């Protein structure tokens, strides 16, 4: 499982002194993009191809609090993928001291910024998706491109 350790920072906190919901989404996106960069697909390549991820749905589940300056381990796996890799369900889990704190599941696709529509990714982007560890509830999704 792809894993990164991050810190719950000042800007991640809400009025109740725990990590705000949008901070989980932001950190999920950061870990995802780190994964692609580490697997030969840096941000410069997304820009060159005029291609980017587009999230159609986010689901957050909370189990334990994360507080200011907590070290949090964030995992990244795949919960669903279409055969053409145009559509995916990405899963991030957040752990503090080995305990599951939150789970983010995002349904997403690849957006062609020039054509302004969903697209099939190039092979060098689809392969890292296919290489991700599958979650226990993984499912094959229909493709987004008609």
Give a brief outline of the structure.
Helices cover 23% and strands 45% of the residues. The chain has 146 residues and is α+β, with helices and mostly antiparallel strands. Strands 1, 2, 3, 4, 5, 6 and 7 form a seven-stranded mixed sheet that branches.
Description:
With 146 residues, this protein is an alpha+beta fold. It has a single domain (2-141), classed as Roll (Thiol Ester Dehydrase, Chain A), CATH 3.10.129.10. The protein has 3 helices and 7 strands, in the order E-H-H-E-E-E-E-E-H-E. Strands 1, 2, 3, 4, 5, 6 and 7 form a 7-stranded mixed β-sheet that branches. A hairpin with a 4-residue loop joins strand 3 and strand 4 (87-96).
The profile of the biggest β sheet is: 7 strands, mixed
Gross CATH architecture: Roll
Q: How much helix is in the residues? A: 10-25%
Distance between the termini: 32 Å
Number of helices: 3
Radius of gyration: 16 Å
Strand content: 35-45%
**Order of secondary-structure elements:** EHHEEEEEHE
Count of domain modules: 1
Question: What do the pLDDT scores average to?
Answer: 94
CATH class: Alpha Beta
What's the CATH topology label?
Thiol Ester Dehydrase, Chain A
CATH superfamily placement:
Hotdog Thioesterase
How many individual β-strands?
Answer: 7
Q: By helix and strand content, what is the structural category?
A: alpha+beta
* Global shape: globular
Low-confidence sequence ranges: none
Organism: Massilia niabensis
Protein name: Thioesterase family protein
InterPro entries: HotDog_dom_sf
